[in-house]
Amino acid sequence: MEKKLTVIKVGTSTLTYENGKINYRRIESLCKVIADLQNSGEQIILVSSGAIGVGMGKAGLSVRPTETKKKQALAAIGQCELMFMYDKLFGEYNHSVAQILLTRYAVETEQKRQNVINTLDELLDMNIIPVINENDTVAIDELEGNNFGDNDMLSAIVAGLVGADKLVILTDIDGLYDDNPRSNPNANKIDVVGRISPEIFEMAAGTGSNRGTGGMITKLHAADYATQRGVECHIVNGANPNVLYYVFDGMNVGTKFLARKEN
Q: Which helix (H) or strand (E) covers residue 112, if one does?
């Protein structure tokens, strides 16, 4: 049976509490589910935000700083802690992880893109789970709001590079709604989107959380990028990582964006 390849992106709001400290129970659950999916024959690439959020918790900060150099320092603190946790937790389920830190410059030419693909292919062949994050310590573009967008676009780029079957974006909302559900209790969730039109973009409330930088609009751009390259995309609530089982079982959770190939 041919293995299916899925890119799973997890955001800062999923990995941490409102005060910025690590949500250990959720991260443990996430690692257990991904390890189980890997055992079932799936291939998983994890794109993980959270370095700055985890760094905030380690440094005792409750509000995300605005100064770029402080965010760089927090990313350096947090990335170390983040990978330590992933290494420990996946190791408990007999899986190994590898850290890959990327910037936009790592994929700007065909040769550089191929280098990334070669590394990922080899890791997957070795049954290693790649954990990818943007290199916030040296690449300040995302920190200033104009690079991969809280790793949403990075996850889509990775999914396109490796020819993934699915991209699953775990966030703190149940999916795409026709209005902002945080301010409108009558907002309706959209289950399936065939094509991301300008009207769909207008539905996205561009609000992020205190710990992350991305809102629904960055996830829509990521979904648009991925689906145009033949990758099915799902935006689902990551509060309970068991939701990944439902996605892989084909159940109607979150919002599914159908893959399409542009001519």
A: helix 110-125
Query: Binding site for ATP: residue ranges?
Result: 9, 171-172, 213-219
pLDDT of residue 180: 77
Say if CB 44 and CB 6 are below 8 A apart: yes
Find the radius of gyration of the CA atoms of the chain. 17
Annotation: binding site: 9, 49, 136, 151, 171-172, 213-219
Question: What is the torsional sign of CA 102, 108, 112, 117?
Answer: positive
Tokens 């055992």, residue? 39
Model pTM score? 0.90
Characterize 223-248 residue by residue with b for buried, 16 or more Cβ atoms within 10 angstroms of its Cβ, and e for exposed: bbbbbbbebbbbbbebbebebbeebb
**Region of residue 50 (left: phi > 0; alpha: psi -120 to 50; beta: else):** left
Fold for domain 5-257? Carbamate kinase (3.40.1160)
- Taking the C-alpha atoms of residue 59 and residue 260, their distance in angstroms, rounded to an integer, is 44
Tens digits of residue pLDDT in 128-170: 999 999 876 665 455 444 455 568 999 999 999 999 999 999 9
What is the helix (H) or strand (E) element at residue 58, kind and residue range? helix 51-59
Query: Quick one: CA dihedral 17, 18, 20, 21, positive or negative?
Result: negative
Annotated binding-site residue numbers for substrate:
49, 136, 151
Q: How far apart are the first and last CA of the chain?
A: 30
What average pLDDT does the segment 12-25 reach? 82
